[in-house]
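#lab-general

N.A. 3:47 PM
ok so I finally got the sequence cleaned up, no stray characters, all 161 residues accounted for. can someone with queue access submit it? mine expired

B.Y. 3:52 PM
send it over

N.A. 3:53 PM
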Amino acid sequence: MNDPSDGAAPSDDEISAFQVATRDLIDVAVRSVEVVAPGLSLPQFRLMLVLDDLGVTPSTKLARELAVSPSSVTRMADRLVTAGHVNRERDGEKRSIVALALSPLGVKTVRDVLSWRHVELARILRALDPADRAVTTRALAAFHAAAASRPEHSHLGWLPL
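B.Y. 4:20 PM
back already:
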């Protein structure tokens, strides 16, 4: 097995394969939102995923987690509140702090989108030979570990998509 510290640069073919895989996985993510929650944008769904992970969260913290401006979170939250996916809550001690939380509809939407992705990924993976699936799973775990070790990696440990 190659030592990852040996400095061997990845080949163009290796990089190209990961670029194609990135597009394929993003396609599944985008289609899941389009199919399950038409009218919901991917940035709005990302905000919902963070809320699902963190629970009731001040909008300023959401902005940091999503690496967007607080005004962007406010605009997205306005649309999500209007659509019934998110609720606004005031901090009991500091009334000026606005926190956001998923509504029951928001929780259901997140669950339904993730369920659709699960089914779609299972359909795609069924087309692979079981041995190829096993190798791919190990390679993706190693890729994730390498990506997660970068200092610019998301505070959540993953970039919500």
